[in-house]
Design a protein that fits this description.
By secondary structure, the chain is mainly β. The protein contains three helices and 15 strands. It is globular and about 40 Å long. Bound molecules: 2-oxoglutaric acid and manganese (II) ion (MN). 2-oxoglutaric acid binds next to strand 8, strand 10, strand 14 and strand 15.
Length: about 200
Amino acid sequence: MDLFASGPERLPVQDGELILWRAFALPLPSAELFARLQAETPWRAESILVFGRRHLQPRLTAWYGDAGYTYSGLALAPQPWTPLLQAVRASVEAATGLAFNSVLLNYYRDQRDSMGMHSDDEPELGPMPQIASLSLGATRSFVLRHKRSGQTLRLPLADGDLLLMAGPLQQHWQHGIHKATRALGPRLNLTFRLIR
Ligand SMILES: O=C(O)CCC(=O)C(=O)O
Ligand SMILES: [Mn+2]
């Protein structure tokens, strides 16, 4: 048994569930996984529709899975699963007890890359999406904002952290990654989803 592997921690949050595994047990060392994903992924700078205008997303992305998916007006054709991503998916499924058929990879090249506040509430994710988010590389602050009360939570996500978002969280909260002001190295984030 790995003495440093820790069990999950349920974070106290209203109107949703957040479960965090710090230093999640991966099938290979996190630095090796980071280097392989950074080098082997066909990263794309996608454009996104914001209030009717096309902009380049301030990060690179790649989409893998069994099914198509629409994200803010952008139809992505998924790449087929790689053996590496299947191995990571298996470890995430074993820890969470959930099944996932797709994964979105986000590559934040430095502190200038970001993700706007949003909810992962597309109809094909079902009424209470369960999304497992694995972070690699630089620590970035994951920001959550309650839609009604405006309550804001900041959760630093470090290398090897796995965060499960579940329950009615996507109905009641938005989340995102803000730009940072101090210099930061690259970060990868993998969000495993089940598309119905
Ligand atoms: O990078 C992150 O931690 C968040 C990613 C995210 O929210 C998404 O892919 O929908
Ligand atoms: Mn999201």
